[in-house]
Each structure stands twice: as C-alpha cells, then as structure tokens.
Amino acid sequence: MSIKKICCIGAGYVGGPTMAVIAQKCPDIQVTVVDLNESRIAAWNDENVENIPIYEPGLSEIVASCRGRNLFFSTEVDKAIDEADMIFISVNTPTKTYGVGKGMAADLKYIELCARQIARVAKNDKIVVEKSTLPVRTASAIKDILDHTGNGVQFQILSNPEFLAEGTAVADLLAPDRVLIGGDTTEEGQKAIQKLVAIYANWVPQEQILTTNVWSSELSKLTANAFLAQRVSSINAMSELCEKTGADVNEVAKAIGMDSRIGSKFLKSSVGFGGSCFQKDILNLVYIAKSYGLNEVADYWEQVIIMNDHQKRRFAKNIIQTLYNTVAGKKIAFLGWAFKKDTNDTRESAAIYVADDLLNERAEICVFDPKVSEDQIFFDLDYLETRTPAENKAGLQVDDNPYSAADKAHAIAVLTEWDEFKTYDWQRIYDNMLKPAFIFDGRNLLDKEALEKIGFVYQGIGS
Ligand code: NAD
Ligand code: UGA
C-alpha cells in the first residue's frame, strides 16, 4: 500500500519547506506538520501567507497553493502521529550545551522525545524517517526505543537527510542534486525504502534517488557538510595569504575553480561561514571520530572550525586596526545580519561575532538587515552572554533604513551578501559619512573601483 498520510514532527527551516514541496508534488497525500511551538504553528497558519515564520523565496506561494488542501500545520502531535503511515522527524539537533560531549556532540534529546512519543501513540505499523541531521548509528537508538513498546507495532526506520541550503530551499527541494534514502537491508527495510522512493519519484528522476544502508546515509550527510565547509575554510585560509602577497583571492578562486576536478562552487571567500549546521555538524563529526579513538581524523576536521573562527576574528581586528587602532565611540554601520542572503535565519552568523568583538572595543554599531528583526538581533547578542542585555542595547542600534544606518558612520561593514546592497546610492551614503569613509566588505560584494572613485577607502577579503 502506498503512503496516504504523512506527519512531520518539527515545523522549522527543514520541516516546513520540505513538507510544503511534498504536499505540492503529491496532491493525494495528506501532509500534517506538527510542532510544540504554538506561535510557530500559528504563524504557519496565518491568514496572510506572507507572515509564515520562514522567509524563503517561493515558499509562501507553495504554502498558499496547498495549505488547507493537503498541507496542514498543527500542534496536535499525538493525533498526527496516530493517523500517519509515515512520520518524518525534523526536529532540531543542536550542539550539546551540558554534560558529556558539551560543545561538541549533537544533543539528541528532542529526537529521543519524538521516538518515545511515537512509541507511546502508534497503534499500527509505521515508517519513521530521520530527516534531521544525526550522528551515524542514531537509527539504532531510535529503533531500540520503538521496538520496546510491547504493543506489537512494527516500525521501519529510514534515514533521509536533507541537503537544502537556506535562501534556495525551494529551488533545492524542487530540483535536488540527489535524494538519499538509507534503510535496513532486510526485505521489510527495502519495502519501506521503496515507499519513500515512490513519493520523491513524483518529481525527482529515479537515477537521482540513491538508496543505501542506514549508516552510509547518516554519515553521508555529515560528510557532505564537512566537505562544503572545508572548501570555504580552505579558500578563506588562502584569502589571508593573498592579502600578504598581493594575490587576489577572487582571481585565485576562479583559476582553481576552472579545474573540473576542483569545480567553481563554494569557493567564495567571506567573513566566515555561519548557519545552524556547518559548525554543529563538524563538531559532531569530530566528537564521533574521537569517540572511536580516531584523533587524527578528529583534528583534521576540527581545523575547519578553527580556521573559520580565525576568519571572523581577523575581520573585526582589521576594522579596529584600520580605524587607527580604536573604534571606541565610533559609529560602524553593519549591512546585513543574516548568515547569508535571502534568509531571515541568523544562527551562527559571522555578524554576531564581529559585533561582539567590536562592542568589546566600545564601538557604536548600527545594524540594517532587510529581513532580520530587531528582537532577533538582540536575542543573538544576548545569547553570547558577553554583556548584559542593557549593555548590548546601549552599544548597538537597529535601523530599518540603510541610509540612516550609515549616517555619520566612520565605517560600513558588509556582513551579508544581500543583492540590494549593490543597488544603493553609494554617493549619497558617502556624502553623509565621516571622512575618511571606510568600507569593509566581508562578502566581496560591492564594486571596489566604483566606490574608490566616489572616495571610499575600500577593503575586501583576500586582496
Ligand atoms: P528548527 O529549529 O528550525 O526547527 C525544529 C523544530 O522542531 C522547532 O520548531 C521545534 O519547536 C520543533 N521541535 C523540537 N522538538 C519537538 C518535539 N518533541 N515535538 C514537536 N516539535 C518539536 O531546525 P531546522 O533548521 O529545521 O533543522 C532541523 C534538522 O534538520 C536539524 O537536524 C538540522 O541539522 C537539519 N538540517 C537543517 C537544514 C537547514 O538549512 N536549516 C538543512 C538540512 C538539514
Ligand atoms: C548548508 C549546505 O549547503 C546544505 O547542503 C545543507 O543541507 C545545510 O547546510 C544544512 O545541513 O543545514 P546553508 O548553511 O543553509 O546550507 O547555506 P550555505 O549556502 O551552505 O552557506 C553556509 C555558509 O557558508 C553561509 O554563511 C555562506 O555565506 C558561507 N559560504 C558559502 C561562503 O562563505 N562561501 C561560499 O563559497 C559558500
């Protein structure tokens, strides 16, 4: 029997967009996305579809087309689990902040809670799909919990990691490079795999749907993120060498990227990668390697994070040095706070750490971001616990207009590569800044030559 009802636990950046696309492509399947967070569910159900809690280009249109038809958002977790043939677990798996593995291992408490809830509620056989990114061998822990319910219900556990990137989530989901599904090698396991394959086959070509054993699938997700982040840290390492030698990192990236063995993607030097996953997943990989005694493997991957931290810190340090070794009392305008363009997600954004360093030096920061709210910006800073919330409020302001954000500033720091920054009236911005007017372009986004012609002192990354 094919799947008729899907439940997805977790209505976040992955659960929401992924299920919206499944609902759009599979009109015969009823998809219910559940979450404990009532305000998040209320936002997904907001009459005005522009108010859904996640900003992704194209997402509100898809939600509008399916919501109330075969796509539902609800806080009734038990009900949705009970009714579903297939349950996706798409909850957060953050880095542990306590106990064994603190600061390294993935915190699996939300995953375990889901497994226990499914075990408690399920009355008929179900396929449970790991959509969250998990340490290799988590499926065996989930299976252990589910197999000890004593109520005779049979569970199959699949691993189906998500590879979407924020800002391009919808495009990535509609045309994925591949879909990866791992399952048991038993006959029952293979049948479960085929049921999930059949769902994706509604829009993904069969040859792009890969099936593997569960462990390969779980580990492939961590590996993919580690490789992607490693490329960014590698090019960022070269950016520092470029600055010392007169080479230009953009030219170096182009030259090496044309080698088809290297490829041109993910070679954009920046103020450092952010986002909820790269750091978390590499730390997790490092922890797993260490737990098997593979210290060289662990050290190798840890260096990717060390390099990234260095890149963020050296960006802030360069601002301070260039502004004559003091930023105390100087206004610095931040363009961008999100960890990349086209998203309102700020988790682990480099902007947070650069702001923290500059606030330590008593700079006065004024932030403009087209999609990030003031509350979120203060939440991010307060979360670091470097200062009291009152001190953060005293040192940083948020402006909803880029021109007033830059008014009377000593410097502008570009932290996110929002396209609109390129189209600003830079002459007008220059005229209202203090001179010399500095721009620190952490994304190599702006037109250096044009800005220098206006009179700006421009510094990008890696040249
Ligand atoms: P998120 O924090 O945006 O969403 C997770 C949601 O799960 C939250 O709304 C939370 O309230 C809910 N939740 C937690 N425990 C719950 C429970 N017991 N019952 C019901 N709801 C519960 O997280 P996310 O960014 O969507 O990431 C989810 C997973 O997907 C993570 O493992 C992440 O590594 C992985 N992932 C994320 C991305 C991305 O781009 N964000 C991409 C690929 C994979
Ligand atoms: C990343 C992966 O690209 C996804 O495949 C994966 O599913 C996801 O993590 C996840 O597991 O969460 P995401 O973090 O949303 O996606 O965005 P990316 O496009 O990978 O960018 C991550 C960070 O690296 C951003 O801060 C970005 O600005 C930075 N970056 C990216 C660079 O500095 N240079 C580059 O060349 C590319």
Automatic annotation (TrEMBL):
Keywords: NAD, Oxidoreductase. Its EC number is 1.1.1.22. It holds the Pfam family UDPG_MGDP_dh. Residues 333-448 form the UDP-glucose/GDP-mannose dehydrogenase C-terminal domain. Pathway: Nucleotide-sugar biosynthesis; UDP-alpha-D-glucuronate biosynthesis; UDP-alpha-D-glucuronate from UDP-alpha-D-glucose: step 1/1. InterPro entries: 6-PGluconate_DH-like_C_sf, NAD(P)-bd_dom_sf, UDP-Glc/GDP-Man, UDP-Glc/GDP-Man_DH_C, UDP-Glc/GDP-Man_DH_C_sf, UDP-Glc/GDP-Man_DH_dimer, UDP-Glc/GDP-Man_DH_N, UDPglc_DH_euk. It catalyses: UDP-alpha-D-glucose + 2 NAD(+) + H2O = UDP-alpha-D-glucuronate + 2 NADH + 3 H(+). It comes from the Bacteria. It is an enzyme of class 1 (oxidoreductase). The keyword Transmembrane helix does not apply. Belongs to the UDP-glucose/GDP-mannose dehydrogenase family. This is UDP-glucose 6-dehydrogenase. It comes from Flavobacterium cerinum. The lineage of its organism: Bacteria, Pseudomonadati, Bacteroidota, Flavobacteriia, Flavobacteriales.
